[in-house]
TrEMBL record, chain A:
Belongs to the HypD family. PANTHER family: HYDROGENASE MATURATION FACTOR HYPD (PTHR30149:SF0), HYDROGENASE PROTEIN ASSEMBLY PROTEIN HYPD (PTHR30149). The gene is hypD. This is Hydrogenase maturation factor. It comes from Novosphingobium mangrovi (ex Huang et al. 2023). Keywords: Iron, Metal-binding.
Automatic annotation (TrEMBL), chain B:
Belongs to the HupF/HypC family. SUPFAM superfamilies: HupF/HypC-like (SSF159127). InterPro entries: Hydrogenase_HupF/HypC. This is HypC/HybG/HupF family hydrogenase formation chaperone. It holds the Pfam family HupF_HypC. Coiled coil: none annotated.
């Protein structure tokens, strides 16, 4: 087994879709949390394989998309300092703040470097002791252990020229916030499998119970997604609201204990601003007091993080699943991946970019249910 | 962003808990990843890699069970 192709079989996918059609008696709206899943669903046309009445809503699960514009402006301000080498995941470079993007800052001469891992940023710090190296630490629970390890290694080596601009976000509090909104029309969730490899799924039990909503931990391949949908819809039809694990080949109930221990040591849970959704309590990570010296906002204390300004873009509603990209008048016109107006267009995992790439014609863009 | 890819662990180097590394084969290319978070991983295991770190080891038995369940959906439908 290679653990990829087995989950892409077209005949099995059709059979799974038929099995779903066989058990559906009522319309249901199901939200996938993760942008990677959104991308896979639109790319493989999984939403179109489903019977009439099953609506897939795309959730806030793209860390690039939900990073607040003020953070991006702070990143640019740091990157433009002559002593700084600013390191970021590639997805983040084109995301607009209120003052352009990191990419445009690089065009003006800032030393902005794309890295694949936080450990790459650490290596750059070791190689450039005369420069200040800042890593833009974004991501969900999946990525936080990687950031934590960079901090643990930097601390052990006593690296004084490495710091982090931290904008890590946590999934369960955002799900809770979505469900608390009276306008929320989500009946079931596909929880993000890769997040759960780290955290496990015990945190989801109280959410499922409190809101009486099924939550199925789901993988990223077409058959994973279809099986996750099947399990979720079966629960809905049977009136159950449990946490189920479709992705048990990789997700254990307790998650990854070593990774969780590192995250708990380096970070503390705190309130966090989400682009388009505003502040959510307990939904982000900040450096714990023991590692606060690695906080770039402490090191460059003249740089402040501004508040989000309202604009034309409806990506906030897209992120909450309240509207679909096709509902936005700017979609594909004023707003394209080359000239994005909002973050859900700029990251390849944003719902607007996924629809733009795979569903260009207006008839295909989908309206919110 | 949470893109994570399964690959086969070819070799393990080092024994420092923070910097242990593995060579991992993904459909033809071989890359290195930090193994600090998968102390249980053995050569020959498939591991899931994200941002330079192996974050979970694939449970082959569970993988087979998932595929069997999918096949059952398929046949159950025809029965
Ligand atoms: S199409 Fe562009 S402007 Fe409209 S919601 Fe999406 S990102 Fe915002």
């Amino acid at each position: 087994m290679k653990h990829v192709d087995e989950y892409r079989d077209a005949a099995a996918a059709r059979a799974c879709a038929e099995a779903i059609a066989a058990i559906v008696t009522r319309p249901w709206s199901i939200m996938e949390i993760c942008g990677g899943q959104t991308h896979a669903i639109v790319r493989h046309g999984i939403d179109r394989m489903l019977p009439e009445g099953i609506t897939l809503l795309h959730g806030p699960g793209c860390p690039v998309c939900v990073t607040p514009p003020g953070m991006i402006d702070a990143a640019i301000a740091m990157a433009e300092r002559p002593e700084v080498i600013f390191c970021s995941f590639g997805d983040m470079l084109r995301v607009p703040g209120d003052n352009g993007s990191l990419f445009s800052a690089r065009g003006r001469g800032a030393d902005v470097r794309m890295v694949y891992s936080p450990l790459d940023a650490l290596a750059i710090a070791r190689e450039n002791p005369e420069r200040e190296v800042v890593f833009f630490a974004i991501g969900f629970e999946t990525t936080a252990p990687a950031t934590a390890m960079a901090v643990l290694q930097a601390a052990r080596e006593g690296l004084g020229n490495f710091s982090l601009l931290v904008s890590h976000v946590l999934v369960p509090p955002a799900m809770d916030a979505l469900l608390a909104d009276p306008a929320c029309d989500v009946h079931g969730f596909l929880a993000a499998g890769h997040v759960c490899t780290i955290t496990g799924y015990r945190d989801y039990l109280p959410i499922a119970a409190r809101h009486h909503i099924p939550i199925v931990v789901t993988g990223f391949e077409p058959l994973d997604l279809l099986q996750g949908l099947y399990l979720c819809i079966r629960q809905l039809e049977e009136g159950r609201a449990e946490v189920e694990n479709q992705y048990d080949r990789l997700v254990r109930p307790e998650g990854n204990p070593a990774a969780r221990a590192a995250v708990d040591r380096v970070f503390t849970v705190q309130a966090q601003d989400w682009r388009g959704m505003g502040p959510i309590t307990q939904s982000g990570l900040g450096l714990s007091p023991e590692y606060a010296r690695f906080d770039a906002l402490g090191r460059f204390s003249e740089i402040a993080v501004g508040r989000e300004r309202p604009g034309l873009c409806i990506s906030g509603e897209v992120l909450r699943g309240a509207r679909k990209p096709g509902d936005c008048p700017a979609f594909g016109k004023a707003c394209t991946p080359e000239h994005p107006l909002g973050a859900t267009m700029v990251s390849s995992e944003g719902a607007c970019a996924a629809y733009y790439r795979y569903r260009r014609s207006p008839a295909q863009t989908g309206k919110a249910a | 962003m949470c893109l994570a890819v399964p690959g086969e662990l070819l070799s393990i180097e080092g024994d420092d808990p923070l910097t242990r590394e593995g060579r991992i084969a993904f459909a033809g290319i071989v890359k290195r990843a930090n193994l600090a978070y998968v102390p249980e991983a053995r050569v020959g295991d498939y591991v899931l890699v994200h941002a330079g770190f192996a974050i979970s080891v694939i449970d082959e038995e569970k993988a087979r069970a998932t595929l069997a369940l999918l096949a059952e959906i398929e046949f159950g439908d025809e029965a």
